[in-house]
Specification:
Elements lengths: L8 E6 L6 H12 L2 E4 H11 L2 H11 L6 H11 L8 E5 L5 H11 L5 E7 L2 H10 E4 L5 E3 L16 E2 L6 H14 L2 H6 L5 E5 L4 H20 L11
Parallel strand pairs: 1-3, 1-4, 2-3, 4-8
Antiparallel strand pairs: 5-6, 5-7
Length: about 240
């Protein structure tokens, strides 16, 4: 449902792999009638646009490389300059580093408060959650299944439900280690700001969605009250 507002609603959703931030970002964006932008979305848009930045990103990805901070920041800057984000956006997957977060502050200067919500889930809970996840080998639908049950069939297309190779415990724990080392410092970067909130992601998706909405409402109430002052960088 689209809501009318005088100031943009700009939200960054943080969280470790398996926290459900992608799902929550989509649902929040849909409820508020704003654009949901993920790292994958940004890169695909840039490549399809055929711009100089898109061509650079395509060349890097085609060669099997990772898009570096400088190029990713330039692509995000270009994406956030489009008309569809005038009313706000939800960012999922960016920023991933403190360097990217610093650049986002610069991009957002004068564009309204940047709300940051971290979906916190203990590592053991994430390992258990991803161990229950099964993915259809044909259509890619992800579902949760009992770890004791034999993988069944996809209710959407009838394909076989399988455990993703990167959802095994050893791989998940390595992904979480990388997250803690490279991305977790973002929480430290943002945590002192009045526009930052951390919510419990170790509960049902509906409850996480409610907690996310409540956290954003709290920040908006603070901003509308005049503390902190309006602006892209707060804290």
């Amino acid at each position: 449902m689209t809501e009318s507002r005088q100031t943009p609603l700009n939200l960054v959703v943080l969280g470790p792999p398996g926290a459900g931030k992608g799902t929550q970002a989509v649902e929040f964006a849909d409820r508020h009638g704003i654009s949901k932008i993920s790292t994958g979305d940004i890169l695909r848009d840039a490549v399809q646009s055929g711009t100089a930045l898109g061509q650079r990103a395509k060349a890097t990805m085609d060669a099997g490389g990772l898009v570096d901070d400088q190029l990713m920041i330039a692509i995000v800057r270009e994406r956030l300059g489009k008309k569809d984000v005038a009313g706000g956006f939800v960012l999922d997957g960016f920023p991933r580093t403190v360097a990217q977060a610093t650049a986002l502050d610069e991009i957002m200067a004068g564009q309204g408060a940047l709300i940051v919500v971290d979906i916190a889930v203990p590592d053991d809970a994430l390992v258990a959650r991803l161990a229950r996840r099964r993915v259809c080998g044909q259509c890619g639908l992800a579902v949760s299944a009992s770890v004791d049950a034999v993988a069944g069939r996809c209710e959407k297309c009838g394909g076989e439900l399988v455990l993703r190779s990167d959802d095994t415990e050893s791989v998940v724990r390595e992904r979480l280690r990388v997250y803690a080392e490279a991305t977790r410092p973002l929480v430290d970067y943002y945590s002192s700001r009045p526009t930052f909130r951390s919510i419990d992601g170790n509960q049902r998706a509906e409850a996480v969605g409610s907690a996310l909405a409540a956290a954003v409402d709290q920040v908006l109430a603070t901003v509308s009250a005049g503390n902190p002052a309006s602006g892209g960088v707060v804290g």
